[in-house]
Design brief:
Chain lengths: ~240, ~220
Amino acid sequence: MSKPTGIVIVSHSGLLARGLADLLQQMAEDVIVTPIGGFPAGSDNLGTDFDAIAGGISSTLSRVSEAVVFADLGSAVLSTRNVLDLHEDEYGPRVRIATAPFVEGAVLAAVAAQTGKSAAEVVEAASEAGQSWTAEPESVSDAELGLDHHEHTQHRADVTIVNELGLHARPAALIAKMAGGFDARVLINGADATSILAIMRLAAQAGQIVTVEAEGSQAQQALAAIVTAIAEGFGEPISSTHE
Amino acid sequence: MPQSPEPVADVAWLHRWMAMTADRFAADIAELTALDEHIGDGDHGRNVQRGFAAIVARLEQPEYAYADVPTTMRAIAATLMAQIGGISGPLLGSAFLRAAKVAPREVLHADQVVTMLEAMTEAVMSRGGAAPGDKTMVDAFLAAVEAAEISLADGGSLSDILAAGAAGAKAGAEATADMLAARGRASHLGERSLGVRDPGAVSVSIMLDAASVAFNQTEETE
């Protein structure tokens, strides 16, 4: 049997990383668990050590075929993501970063790894640790309201840009944030409305008519919100030819 | 006397860009430190200065003498990512890594410079999580991209585009003075973060200005 999926622990604290590793090893004796923490790694100083993270992942992958990384906060996550990006070509999908509570997620992960689960399955198991804590109210879709019997309805509308500066960075950001909040796929002149840069690339000027399309269970709400925002000029000065 | 050749955005430009950025950070360290002391822990200037000095040292290694553009950018990225202290190094590192992924092998043309700026901006926004108006380097990057795209659309030369990007970044950094910090340590200061530019945004402005100046600076010019 090949070695179980490895687990790498990255923390600002060497103590915390080692402590969690001990905990995991208790419940998953065949899983290779590598703790990395502190700066310099292994010392008592708090911080993240990019080179140690890279080295830890590299040595883990030389012993097992797949691994999952748990990072505690902020710069540990950023550094780990940077390591994975930098080594994307070498490691590819062999190593993944889990999005889960540090301790609870790692524990579920260790148990899953011990039973022979793949990295993808281990990440899935870990994410369940976070779900029990989420109290987000579910947004009610058209279908649930009984208003729309088609799950994937396409809506579109043309709207004129009225604000002087057109779809520059600020409105692009407002639109992107709005579009991201609906259960719908939204396009503006074919560009992904959740991407600030894609919207900006349209270089849409005042007076120009753009086509907004939305598809998905909240297509109608998404379309209405975005078309309204564009038509009202985002609270910015209106171009004089459109007053 | 023969005319100077047209400048090109090649690996030599990258080397000059990094060297000029390192010099500017060394010269401006007092200013950056003061900005960061106002809203942070004061180590930003030291961090970027050290990061770019390390880049220059690394690029001087023989293995980079004949490296192509993406390889050089990856080396820049790796050096910045490994910088300790502060978030700017890792964020700028992720920016150069994304740029490396979209860069051509030998020479960047006008549209590719704009693509490079877009890639850098996208990387910093997704890795750092900041939105426009949060008073971060994102505000400088977005303004730079916007200006560069307008210049490209207006038929600007590479030199024009880089100059526009630099001017945009500078304006973007200036604009951060009137923003309330929404990220990092500064976000705990509330109103006290007003009136002072974000040091990360100022650093991006210095870096992109260096890109522009370094582009026009060839061996034949002073």
